[in-house]
Amino acid sequence: xxxxxxxxxxxxxDSDRSTSDSSRMPLRSLQxxxxxxxxxxxxxxxHRRLIDTLDLSKLSNLEMERVRVEIxxxxxxxxxxxxxxxxxxxxxxxxxxxxxxxxxxGPLETLxxxxxxxxxxxxxxxxxxxxxxxxxxxxxxRFRDDAHLMQIIERIVTRVGRRVDESSPMVDARLADGSRxxxxxxxxxxxxxxxxxxxxGAERLTINDLIQxxxxxxxxxxxxxxxxxxxxxxxxxxxxxxGKTTLLNCLSNYIPENERIxxxxxxxELKLQQEHVVRLETxxxxxxxxxxxxxxxxxxxxxxMRPDRIVVGEVRGxxxxxxxxxxxxxxxxxxxxxxxxxxxxxxxxLETMMLMAGINLPEKALRxxxxxxxxxxxxxxxxxxxxxKVVEFSEVTGMEGSTITTQTIFKFEQRGVENGKVIGEFVxxxxxxxxxxxxxxxxxxxxxxxxxxxxxxxxxxSL
Length: 463
Fold this sequence. Notes:
Mean pLDDT: 83
CATH class of the largest domain: Alpha Beta
Helix content: 25-40%
CATH architecture of the largest domain: 3-Layer(aba) Sandwich
Number of strands: 16
CATH superfamily of the largest domain: P-loop containing nucleotide triphosphate hydrolases
Strand content: 15-25%
Low-confidence stretches: 1-31
Radius of gyration: 27 Å
CATH topology of the largest domain: Rossmann fold
Structural class: alpha/beta
């Protein structure tokens, strides 16, 4: 019985042979071309024939096997009719690449499957970089042209209900695996569409993993875990790619299961393991510029949802004021991240963002809000060798005059660089944190030896 979605063999083959598609290579040129050029030409023509044959818009991943069979049948037709020399490995590779074009991210799929890659940076259709272990390297992966790259960008953003065009040339989105995506297109991007993907590993890291990576010493991790369980308000600070979201996910493991958690993010990427979690995500304006829902709107709404904890993926604007007020009005134990180069810079940025709320308050009043709301600042840095470390663990102790006072409990002291590797050690400063009484009230007895002014981290243990 004839498949209504499929042309007959003769009709389809005659149609393909008579096509006037200028992108198809002449047979003589194809036979003398390099293997990569042959595969690229075949991939393009198989994809186009597949579009003509099947209604791809109505297919889902559940029908991938059906598409795979059709791709291989079309490929065998072309190879036989044009006498193209292709090995079995090349044929299998071609089938897989066309599948990626239909269902996935095209040429980026091979990079997405590499567990060592943390960032994929597409500067143009012919220039793609990746980050492995904190270091950037150029790849030989290519898109056909800017139109091909735009096709993949549009596929990503439409799947999460967003759009990208000349009237809205910047967009944030996320992939099904939680990876964060940013795209910017002409006229803002002068050399063609630009795509950035921040990947998240399939396996969720824990504090013990960070200890093994020497990103945080066990003594500091033990204190941080006790701070979370004791409902201290924490800010995780760091630069781009420093590991703020990873550490926030790790710390969230210590929130008790019987608490109600509300998360607020621009692009949902937090992976909290507790059962009672309500996830909220901001919304950009529609094509008429209406309907935007900001992080500040969501923080205000979260306060009406009876949360035990509020977790803001990243504080970026006026929601900082609402967050500080929430921390000061019974919603202790909240955690958020912020872009800053040091703990002191994080406080300065918070003050600036609180001013963005449009509330006419004196600077001292804003600082008092922050000083009374925040208990701990954890500073992360990506070092020159690509490693990520917690370089400062500080306590906010209050106000002296109009200045917020802090004290550093732990820090990472860099001694130098040998053979490209950063040399240094974690040290305790000898300062006993004032929140120790609170930790004891919650049943945590941290040994005083953790805070002695010595190098820490040599002794490994699980938390």
